[in-house]
């Protein structure tokens, strides 16, 4: 490790996902957690004590009893913001106006306009923006990019399929904020479908689809007034050149998180594209099946080649979680703004909301412009 000072972080909110990222900040090597803020100081103190017991920092982060105190601290460079989406715009803009670099959970906003306002605030204040799509920082994704671009393994992409689901219990649907239309109006589409959409855009070289459709298979009203919260959703993305992508996301189906990119020569399969299965390596496969015939005999040969990448899971050092905070911290420490991260987040938001718009209008296709400003 070099002698460069670390990027100094604050966590605004004590959502459960922040526990994983507490460790990711510690393991990033170029980051230091300075403080955690909650609306109640006791809650921040308890959060810090529980995380510190399992994953200790050499200097215990400060516990703050309100969000404003975190944003006003001069010894914090960057804010990790895991607040519910319904509260995110206000505090992300406040953080940007305070000169803090911002890493937010997904979806970025409730609407495209929300996301654009957040990014515009970051641009005005010359601070880095990024959303928390961890797989975008994995070494496996880099290897898969090489495979898709080698013109041999997959060939020309024709179809992309992705699926991310988990089975919520009665308590989840009764109490979890992801079932509250005021806090998480995109429901499973924002929580799980965001990853599916991002994967499809990544596979297509960040190209936007021309048109999308969506369908809500199940929803609930949540605990607030307003439109229902999608709890089971599917969507279709249609790209130039006839390429299509489908995705399914749900709080009502057992845990699964796979993606397939099918082309003219074979297909790429990754069984755990969001959260890698536990182990010291991440994996993906390329399948180039054939079906020779010999008279009455018909064979089907799989011809699967598996690639292993030396990359741990479970947010250990070198995992995609720690890489996310390392990459973000490196940009902050270098004084460089990489706007491509904001552009990808905005594209993802735009596609997600267009799919929801389609679903709300009986799956009427919604066109998306072929350019991005």
Q: Overview of this structure, please?
A:
There is one protein chain. With 373 residues, the chain is α/β, with parallel strands linked by helices. It has ten helices and 17 strands. It has helices spanning 17-27, 41-54, 67-71, 85-97, 112-124, 139-148, 170-175, 187-203, 320-334, 340-360, and strands spanning 7-12, 31-37, 62-64, 78-81, 101-104, 129-131, 157-167, 211-220, 229-238, 244-250, 252-263, 267-270, 281-287, 293-294, 297-298, 304-310, 366-367. Strands 16-13-12-11-7-10-9-8-17 form a nine-stranded mixed beta sheet. The longest helix has 21 residues, at 340-360. The protein is globular and about 75 Å long.
List keywords for this structure.
single chain; 373 residues; alpha/beta; 9-stranded mixed sheet; 6-stranded parallel sheet; 10 helices; 27% strand
